[in-house]
Automatic annotation (TrEMBL):
This is Lipoprotein. It comes from Paraglaciecola polaris LMG 21857.
Length: 85
């Protein structure tokens, strides 16, 4: 049987990541961002929240493995929905 070692990420480190992303999002919003930049900040924030809320090493690693949908794909899907309500 393969045993895996759990890695505990300190809460202070996770909190710092969230704070960094929130400050970054605020700064980007204040200087006038493109929709693509705002989308990317939102995706980063969601991933960070996933990592922050992870209770185990397995959950944390699953969050790290999340790949965001490309903005271009997201935008095309959004345009399709808006065109065909």
């Amino acid at each position: 049987m393969l045993k895996t070692k759990s890695v505990v990420i300190p809460a202070a480190t996770r909190k710092l990541r969230v704070d960094f992303i929130l400050v970054g999002a605020l700064l980007l919003t204040l200087v006038g961002c493109t929709n693509k930049q705002l989308y990317q900040v939102g995706q980063s924030y969601q991933k960070s929240e996933c990592e922050h809320d992870a209770l185990t090493d397995v959950q944390f690693k699953a969050c790290q493995g999340i790949e965001a949908k490309r903005y271009e794909d997201y935008d095309q899907e959004r345009e399709d929905v808006l065109a065909n309500p």
